[in-house]
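Quick question, first post here. What does this chain look like in 3D?
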Amino acid sequence: MIGVLKILMKRTKTSLLLIGMALLMGCAHFQPQPKFKYISWQERQAKLQQNKNWVARGVLSVTYNKKRDIAHFEWQQNQDDYVINISGPMNLNKVKIVGAANKAEFCQSNGKCVQAKSSEQLFFKQFGWRLPVSNIRYWVLALPAPGKAENFGFDQYGHLVSFEQQGWRVKYSEFQSVKNIDLPNIIELKDKNFLIKLKIRDYFLGVK
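> Answer (accepted):
Ran it through. Tokens below.
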């Protein structure tokens, strides 16, 4: 495992793992769900697709090869450009991924940067994660990415709660209302080798 990942993710520390998982779950079952009203999927989809600029903050868990990495993240999306800030437990050892069309850059806190054609390449090279960044920018809003998606599931309010796309099973549990738009609190992404969980603490819509 490369040095950056060893510094950023001290997965052998049981205490930090417990702290991270507590943050990931956010004591969810003690927080009452807000009251929602039924809105058709077509109407929800139209509202969600209008959000081109947003910020999401929370905790990320990646499980693979019988290992689990946990990190805090802040994702800033501005049209097709994005900045993803990642930090280890206790907000230590921050790194930044900056991306745009056909290019991405990974920068450590010491100023050292590495470039690649995509953030997917950078995440795999630096962390060993298969993180579908180009799709997550849509999935984090409870939207399928452009292209084929199937096996859609909905709850009684018309929230999209599950679907499959490009080899990934996407599931949502719990929602929060931001500017009268319902957004997911907990997102689970699963393929043959990776289980990714995102616990979203805060959303900010319309941020540039």
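The CA atoms of residues 73 and 86 lie 5 Å apart.
The domain at 3-28+38-205 is CATH 2.50.20.10 (outer membrane lipoprotein receptor (LolB), chain A).
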